[in-house]
Amino acid sequence: MSLHRVTPFQALAAFALVTLTFNVVGAQSSVASRPVPDRDYRLFVGLNIEVSQGDQYALIEGYVNNRVRTDLSPNLVSLRKVDDMRFIYAPKLSRNSLTVKNLSAKQIASTAKAARNAMRNQQALQDFQTHQTAAMEGELNELMANSAGTDDELLQAQVSHKQNEITNFSNIADKFTDQQALTEDINNRSKTAQAGVPTALLITAKVSAPTLVTDAYIVGVARISTEESVSQDVVFFDRVPRLDQKLRQIRIVKEGLPGEFEVLDVKLHIYRNGQELVTDKSEKQFALTRDEAYEYLALERVSQNRGKSLAPEPAWSLAPAELFASAKSDAFDYPMTVQVDEKGNVTSIDPNIILPQNVAELVTKLPFFPGIEDGVAIASTAQVNLASFFR
């Protein structure tokens, strides 16, 4: 697999110009008698990874069991079937910076024991899924028996809730017990051993987050040196079901590498639903206030769409922490119409739409790329559904 590194000189120049502008504006507007505004937003240089699909490149937006979800395909794509991959570095916005400690990478021996452990873990997960599903279905049957022939709304609601619970559990469990992914992994280990290439790369780190993040995934890039190449990039992926304030150990093994190599550098990029989360190791960081972050969104919207007219769009990378913490989209699935001002603030929600209070509060905290008309930011109307964050 070849890797093509794209150096975004123009993007970085724009980044430097914007950060300089914010410095000057902040210095001119500071008043000793006013409290210093929080700077918990981060402008940084992040990494987008695209994989080849046919004659196009598709942006990776999710990762499950050595498969990726892209913006060009509704189905998961096996990484083993990807012929080419490329990096694109770009300025990004995020908040609630994660902490990465003790990041290291070293060469290790690849053994058949790893494959046996994978099979053992997979069987345990399948046994748990079978047992748990049977128990939930037993509870459902009991509820249905009690509600038969009655109009008790509470019982009917409990039946519906239990049915949804079984469906959600099945969907989540299937991701962890993907037999095809396990078979591919074991076959790959076997081929590697038969080819006489017993080496692998072990990447370890400890990661924490100030707010809960579920269903995250890591894309790492290790730069190695071999006898054939002075510098070669190795990409690795891993899923992280939960991140919070507790430091969690990350351990990733990347196999199928040359017999001898030296690790030159390693970097971790952490994502949720295609949105990169800033860490204390992210490149070219600059702390922003809320107002400066919104100003940057408007600037980016206008500069990338000169002369165009577009409706507002959510800036999902700055979505409220409650969305990053949730593993389910159902509780947020409410299409709505909102008014967005020229700075990207939600100013009102269509009063004819009935919404749960928490959904209404969240959408007012969601930043938007403002609408533009002939390349000028304006106040306008947007259609939004918070469930779209989960794709």
Condensed summary:
This protein is an alpha+beta fold and 391 residues long. It has helices at residues 9-29, 112-147, 153-176, 179-194, 290-303, 321-325, 357-365; strands at residues 2-6, 41-53, 56-64, 67-70, 73-78, 84-95, 99-109, 199-208, 213-225, 232-243, 248-255, 262-272, 275-277, 283-288, 313-314, 336-340, 346-349, 368-369, 371-373, 376-378, 380-384.
Write up what this structure looks like.
It is a single chain. Helix 2 (112-147) packs antiparallel against helix 3 and helix 2 (112-147) runs antiparallel to helix 4 (179-194). Mean pLDDT is 81; it is low at 2-13 and 24-31. This protein is 32% helix and 38% strand. It has seven helices and 21 strands. The longest helix has 36 residues, at 112-147. The strands form six sheets. Strands 1, 2, 3, 4, 5, 6 and 14 form a seven-stranded mixed sheet that branches. Strands 10-9-12-13 form a four-stranded antiparallel sheet. Strands 7-8-11 form a three-stranded antiparallel sheet, with no helix packed on it. It is globular, with a radius of gyration of 24 Å.
Draw up the topology in text.
Layout: E1 2-6, H1 9-29, E2 41-53, E3 56-64, E4 67-70, E5 73-78, E6 84-95, E7 99-109, H2 112-147, H3 153-176, H4 179-194, E8 199-208, E9 213-225, E10 232-243, E11 248-255, E12 262-272, E13 275-277, E14 283-288, H5 290-303, E15 313-314, H6 321-325, E16 336-340, E17 346-349, H7 357-365, E18 368-369, E19 371-373, E20 376-378, E21 380-384
Parallel strand pairs: 1-6
Antiparallel strand pairs: 2-3, 2-6, 2-14, 3-4, 4-5, 7-8, 8-11, 9-10, 9-12, 12-13, 15-18, 16-17, 16-21, 19-20
Helix pairs in contact: 2-3, 2-4
